[in-house]
Amino acid sequence: MPSDASTDLAYLSATEALAAFRTRELSPVELLTAVLDRAEKTEPVVNAVVEYLREEAYASAREAEQRYLGKGSGPLRPLEGLPVAAKEEQPIAGRSHREASLLMADNIADATHPVIQRVQEAGGIVHMRTTTPEFSSAAFTQSKMWGVTRNPWNPEYSCGGSSGGSGAALAAGYAPLATGSDIGGSIRIPASFNGVVGFKPPYGRVPAMPPYNLDQYCHDGPMARTVADCALLENVIAGPWAGDVVSLRPKLVLPEAYEGARGVEGLRIALCVTLGNYRVDAEVAANTRATAEALRAAGAIVEEIELAWDQPTIMRASLAHFAGIFGADAGAAVAAAPDLVNPYLAAFAADAARVAAETSFLEGLELEGAIYAELGPVLERFDALICPTTAIPALFADDDYTSTKVVVDGVELGHHMDIAMTIPFNICSRVPVLSVPSGFASNGVPTGVQVVGPTYDDAAVFKVAAAVEAVRPWAYVPGSRPAL
């Protein structure tokens, strides 16, 4: 794609932008204008934005500009002047909170999510809110309310879900940072499809709002285009919060800088391409193996392993869990207005109800325990595990997968979520997982790998992911960006 000054500004990393703000080579107002101009040009194709907060954003950018000029009050804050795209599912008091559902068309939030609150208190500028599927219930992003959100690399394909709008916004140059949430892969799937970085923190690391803060599958987390930027945002949003009983103390602070390839010298890394018996596309597998080989060349000790996981059992365990919480919410929405909800939400609610009738809560816990029993010993032997994020490069954007099936290597999968190699790590919710790009598929869509760390060892996954970024240089440079 041809390079121009405005587009180059839109693709600055957060750390680059902060450095330019400090030297006064760049103003927060200039960066905000660049990313909003980029969105205006490409939104007719991408459709990732549900609301712009232009007036408030420019007021905050001008205030940040004064701070960098030494004329504002108070010290510079960690995200001072950086535009941040916020997932609409995370409410902002006094603003619409629709969650892509016609049932909530008139809903106004009465509280602000702690993640959004912390972004703003750290000087981040929430200048736009991004699309989701209805109630964040799918691995693609489309709805009767907001239409279809597309992959900036190839609009025929989906941006993923449920934090699909945030992933697409990053890839399209709308912001250097974005927020997401992840109950079955909703940060990591869009990270993989869009070629960005997404972190599922371990349970309790980042606070959430009741009642879903009490669901151990649920995680709010950061998304960005680089590993260092993802760590920057994670350091802002992590830490204990009075409104969340499970939020961890003390606050963990990740390193601000990483050694790159040298950081993995001598580390023991497990490679598992199929996570038991997942069907994995050949290009995804090849890019995962190439990533492992590059880490080996950088000095890591990489060993390929097998896990005795069964994908249908993983799906059954997750649906048994969803049945009593998320699935029950979905079922109530479907029962209230079956003609208004999206078909994929109705299908999800039906699947959860079916599994609930077959699997008790206790049986679900027993399945979850058996799943971690396979992973736990691996994470005792190794510093990290790498595996694909998704089994295919991307889903198609215009299909809701209620009548058609995903086919991998000639085999028809039972459900579109069978491509989500993320779900086991929501079940094993205390492990940190970072999805980073691994390459491209022949359809022009990126692929990703997950870096999985031992329980609550967030630093390990960022160290390995920074090495992956260094040994497999990524795309957001002039001449190598989505051609929109």
UniProtKB/TrEMBL annotation:
Listed SUPFAM superfamilies = Amidase signature (AS) enzymes (SSF75304)
Gene3D superfamilies per UniProt:
Amidase signature (AS) domain (3.90.1300.10)
Q: Which organism is it from?
A: Yinghuangia soli
The segment(s) forming the Amidase domain are 30-461
Which PANTHER family has this protein been placed in? GLUTAMYL-TRNA(GLN) AMIDOTRANSFERASE SUBUNIT A, MITOCHONDRIAL, TRANSAMIDASE
Gene Ontology terms for molecular function: catalytic activity
Q: Which family does it belong to?
A: Belongs to the amidase family.
Q: What is this protein called?
A: Amidase
* InterPro entries the record matches: Amidase, Amidase_CS, Amidase_dom, AS_sf
Q: What is the lineage of its organism?
A: Bacteria, Bacillati, Actinomycetota, Actinomycetes, Kitasatosporales
What PROSITE patterns does this protein map onto? AMIDASES
